[in-house]
Amino acid sequence: MIPSLSSLTHLNLTGNLINYIASNTFSDWNPRVIDLSFNRLSGVDDWGLSVVTELYLQSNTISYIEIGGISKLNRLEVLNLSSNRLETLPNSFLEYLTDLSHIDLSNNDLGDFLEDPSVPGVFSSSSPIRLEKLSLSSNSLKILRPGYLSNLTVLEHLDLSHNKLTDVNSRQFQELNLLKSLDISYNELSEFNYTTVNSLVSLKSLDLSGISWTCDCTIEDTLEWLQTTKISLIGYQKYECAEPNSKKNVLLSELNLDGEKCNVEIIMEKTIILIIIGCTSFVILVVAAIVFWQHRWRLKKKLKKQHYRSSAPKVMLNVAGRCMKGHRCPCLTTMTQRPCRRNTTLTHMAITTLTCMLVHHTKLYHLAMSTPTLPSSKSSGKHLLSSNNLDIFKRKPAKMVLSLCGEISTSYILQFRC
């Protein structure tokens, strides 16, 4: 047991590989400052630190904080929990630390916890919070919820550097009227709207280092503000452009935008051109649709005529090929033995019949000499050839075929229900 040292005010136990401290270990002591940094402590418990004002626990492996461990630290003013493994914090834990003025939570894993909208405000309290300095640096913080820090009305120094913030705006700093120093350096910002800090009337120092500035005409107002503001800009002489490539690595303090065409202007010009092309195309399509609708029947008839003309040679070649190979003639078999297909037209049947006659004129000759009759489903057919046409057929079969076109179309083809 360590003897009572009531007069001890500072206790430094840093770097001693301490991994456990029993409850009420320091209850008989009266140290005001305790340094337990660079040890192996895994949590904060009730160690009997009722009168301590400064507690340094950085660079341990702390992953939890017990309410019982901090509920008695009502005199604590400075708490350093940086470089630990904290992923959560007790809700409204600041209610117990009524005298706390400085807390360092940097280099932990609190990003997801602080972003979660279902988690009550960690920095809220029913009693006034006297926190003046807060560090949330290096916590992989992507979003700072609007109004999340609004209860910290006396906050003077805020460090949000080395996180993953992509946007900052005035709503995130509501009620921070006494804020004097703001550090948002080395986040994932590509721009900064100076109106963000207009409401921070007490701001004296601002660190914007590490922003990937886009140096086109969109930065003109911000650049003017950076050059004229009375706020101390930490590292301003090293702020440099990231885009466009023509301005890359150019210092903002030396940037000249005279004659530069803004990317926004270029985009607007392209957009206007695309709109004009789109509108013109639309008007043309509408006019074409109206013309087509007004002349739809003429176009339909014209297309039918073209279809018949283009399909006739194919039908003749196909039929001729079949007849030359010795197949039964389609005009005397298919068309007489089964109904026509729905898309069969009189033109196709006539072409088929005429083609068969031209190729097989000898067969037709014998057929004519025997004066055959064309079959019919209900009554006997009519004679295909008249006596007048027989003489013509004997002399010129091809001419005979053409002369028979009228008779075929009326006496034969029209008998089928297509």
From TrEMBL:
Keywords assigned: Glycoprotein, Leucine-rich repeat, Membrane, Repeat, Signal, Transmembrane, Transmembrane helix
Topological relation to the membrane, as annotated: Single-pass membrane protein
InterPro entries registered for this protein in UniProt: Cys-rich_flank_reg_C, Leu-rich_rpt, Leu-rich_rpt_typical-subtyp, LRR_dom_sf
Protein name (database record): LRRCT domain-containing protein
Lineage: Eukaryota, Metazoa, Spiralia, Lophotrochozoa, Bryozoa
Main location per the UniProt record: membrane
Cell compartment(s), UniProt: Membrane
Transmembrane segments: 272-293
GO MF annotations, alphabetized: signaling receptor activity
GO cellular component terms listed in the entry, alphabetical order: plasma membrane
Gene3D superfamilies reported for this sequence: Ribonuclease Inhibitor (3.80.10.10)
Pfam families assigned: LRR_8
GO biological process: signal transduction
Presence of the UniProt keyword Phosphoprotein in the record: no
PANTHER family: MSTPROX-RELATED (PTHR24365:SF530), TOLL-LIKE RECEPTOR (PTHR24365)
Domain LRRCT: 212-263
